[in-house]
Amino acid sequence: MTDADAKVEGETKTEEETKPEEKQDEEKPPKEMRAVILNGFGGLKSVKIVKRPEPVLADGEVLVRVQLCGVSFQDVMVRQGVTESPPKTPFILGFECAGIIEALADDVENFKVGDRVVGLPDHRAWAELVPVNAKYVYPIPETIAIQEAAAVTLSYTVAYLLVHDLANVSSGQSVLLHSAGGAVGQAVCTLLQDIGDVTVLGVASKNKHEDIKESVTHLIDRGGDIPAEVKKVCPDGVDVVFDCQGGEECSRGYALLRPLGRYILFGSSNIITGETKSILSVVKSWWQVDKVSPLRLYEENKGIIGFNLRRLLHHQPGGHERVREVIQTVYNLWQKGVAKAHIDSTYALEDITEAMTKLHERKNIGKLLLDLSMEPKPKPVTPAKSKKEEKKEEKEEKEEDDKANEVTKNNAKNEKEEESKAEEKEK
Questions:
Q1: What is the model's pLDDT at position 419?
Q2: How many CB atoms lie within 10 A of CB 155?
Q3: How buried is 13 (Cβ within 10 angstroms: 0-12 exposed, 13-18 middle, 19+ buried)?
Q4: Nearest 5°: phi and psi at 96?
Q5: Cα–Cα distance measured from residue 182 to residue 293, given in angstroms and rounded to the nearest whole number
Q6: Is the pLDDT of residue 179 over 80?
């Protein structure tokens, strides 16, 4: 054998020896994580727990190993497709998570691996690993348990901005508060009690009255005659209305204000009726609101204010700096014993549809959380399905997803037509 032959044989062996290793690396499956995915806007069947590849960090992001997630009514609205500019389906749901930093982009400062944090991304929070821009990540003080932080951060941030930044509530004033039994409602009640000498008229379903009676001055049944009940306690009207319902409550709330009163809209849950989006509910909610001109506000000495935390935090200049300041204040209030975690119940990630159902039916008193360490509730035992039945079920699910997406497109088209008609009518 010549030296040249030996060299060729050696190169061939080296190639053969390395090929299996290269092949093994190529075939190695990517690491996966659990995530809650929305396949199409519509009902609960569109919400799925799936395996997704672990995310890759972009510049300015930290990677959070999630332990707990917050669930709010906003998530129900996103599922139905009634929020502004939602992502294209499929996407990961959720706006709140709390956990441990697992990795950071090279350009991220002021954080380190192992820090306990709360993240408030614009969607994609309900997963085992969540990449969040550092602008929307908040360190949890050592004295606060991570479950407490998950429960108070978003709810009290909204409540603080409503009570102090927008309404500027002071002692001796009166407040009408819708959804007083919800997580934000209970946080608002706590902050008003801290101010002291504030008359709080809380609106809630009758079944919640016993549980929240200590946090309000007067309770009003959600299904009753709210203006009449308010007039019994405050004949001249109230100083502030906090409304997360929208629709006809906007006009009623404004009419209940006394001079120098402030009506604040921070939600529109009245457009949620059935399990899926109803174009009739959307249009009805819009038409029920009286149009108030600036001249009328001037003459009546009243104010109308809108508040949307997602828009402030993620889409408006300077919003994330103010939110960071407020979250630090909220944590200080917790350490002083003012802010308290109002936790209704905690679910496994796989039981997310049960949590959403509870919110949809307005049965929660306080915050709902997802705990990623919890085991899901056992499912009812059903006979094994044949391959034919499985294929049929898959086909039906796909048809449902396609139908939901088609309905969403049609609804968007109908909304534009209704808006055009409304503009023509106003002209």
A1: 54
A2: 26
A3: exposed
A4: -130, 135
A5: 32
A6: yes
- pLDDT 10s digits, 237-264: 999 999 998 877 888 999 999 999 999 9
Contact at 8 Å (CB) between 307 and 266? yes
Backbone angles phi, psi at 200, to 5 degrees: -110, 115
- Give kind and range of the element (H or E) at residue 311: helix 309-315
* Listed residue (274, 283, 281, 273) closest to 417, CA to CA: 283
Strands (E), 233-286: 238-243, 257-265
Structure tokens at 277: 């989006």
Closest CA to 292 of 263, 258, 259: 263
62's CB contacts (< 8 A; 6+ apart) are 101, 103, 104, 105, 108, 111, 117, 119, 131, 132, 134, 137
What pLDDT, in 10s, does the model give residues 46-64? 999 999 999 999 999 999 9
Please state whether 329 falls in left (phi above 0), alpha (psi between -120 and 50) or beta.
alpha
Rounded CA gap, 43 and 28, in Å?
Answer: 36
Cis peptide leading into residue 227 (ω within 30°): no
Contacts of 172 (CB under 8 A, 6+ apart): 197, 198
Residue 127 DSSP label: B
Are 63 and 108 in contact, with CB atoms under 8 Å apart? no
Quick: pLDDT tens for 308-355: 999 999 999 999 999 999 999 999 999 999 999 999 999 999 999 999
Instruction: Please tell me the distance from the alpha carbon of residue 92 to that of residue 47, in angstroms, as a whole number.
Output: 10
pTM: 0.82
Tell me the residue type at 264. Answer: I
Helix axes 226-233, 248-255, angle to 10 degrees: 20
* DSSP percent split of the chain into helix, strand, coil, nearest 5: 45, 20, 30
| Under 8 Å between Cβ of 148 and 132 | no
For helices 146-160 and 319-335, angle between their N-to-C axes, nearest 10 degrees: 120
**Under a CB-based contact definition with an 8 Å cutoff, are residues 197 and 180 in contact?**
no
- Reduced to 3 states (helix: H, G, I; strand: E, B; else coil), residue 69 is strand
How many whole angstroms separate alpha carbon 236 and alpha carbon 413? 44
